[in-house]
# Entry
Amino acid sequence: MRRDSLVSMIVPVYNKRDYLETCVNSLRAQTYTNLEIILVDDGSADGSGELCDAYAREDSRIRVIHQPNCGASSARNTGLDAAGGDYLCFVDADDRVLDTMVSEMTAVLEGEGCDLCVGGIMVLDEKDEFNSHCLTHPEPLFFQFPTPREKHQFLCQRILYSQFGWSACTQLFRRDTIERNHLRFETGQKIYEDMDFFFRYVACCRNFRFIPKTFYIYRQHGDSAIHTAAKQERIHWMLCLARLWERTLEGQSAFPPSYICAGVICVVCGLLNDIPRIEADQRQIVQAFDAFRASENGEWLLGQARLAVRNRDKIIRVCGWGLGLRVYGFYKSILSGNMAAFNWVNQLRKWNEILFEWKELCLPDKNMSP
# Structure
């Protein structure tokens, strides 16, 4: 392993004075010492910026950048622009990391030539410790994508289905991959910006390694954007994200239109998997989609629906039977204008699962996994 590879650890800081010491100490304690720690003070008003400056005076590896408050995505982009490392990772100012994280992940990237290394995450619920849990896998995993179709299937079935989580803070990235593909965080995306960056980075990868070890301790607050956003707002931002992906990927031959269609439903699948049984909640979801259809994005969504219905078989090949038929059912509901048909989609899911089990038994040689 090349011990001279520089690793940049980028930390957006906004009013996190009470947590900052624990975070920074976990970075300074890394067993891999060739680091630069970039603290981006995003217009803090609680003294966090001054505390960052104090840390920089204590440790020459720490650099501080002060900017007006523009949000976490902007702060991360500022850190990316300033970073000089061969490898990059992101840490939120109220979280902490295991002291061997950088060393073990760098060893994987250097030793195996991977494009990305992903680790496990501990979700620490401040309000209810019994609700804390780990997001990981019991065994090491290695994924490679020799063909576009295999990459399509992986992105739909693993990344967008959130089998590895959506946080950008549990990975070690190659800087050359980020710069070569002009990757930055989307500043106009209010929520799900982590999923967006992770998805677009993996879309540029040849392979990546998952390490079955919890490296990152994520402190879950009840006031985070993803937890406070109403379901209608989440639907809106998920669909906006899908449209962003279409604009980003439509010029790449590796991403056919049918795949972009599948991406729309994948980003809303988390909500579709938890369709509320209460009629009032169902009406709120219907209203959210009706509002999106009535906005300037409406024609785009209808166009995606028409394309998806025409390309049903292609989408099933990418997504598998269970998810693929759910995509088809969702877009049929969009075209009919009757979003109350979500109830029908929910029923469809039940027999889709039965159909998938039957195909697995009858066609064991086919790659049909959802």
Notes: The beta strands are 7-13, 35-42, 62-67, 87-90, 96-97, 116-125, 133-135, 141-144, 171-174, 207-220.
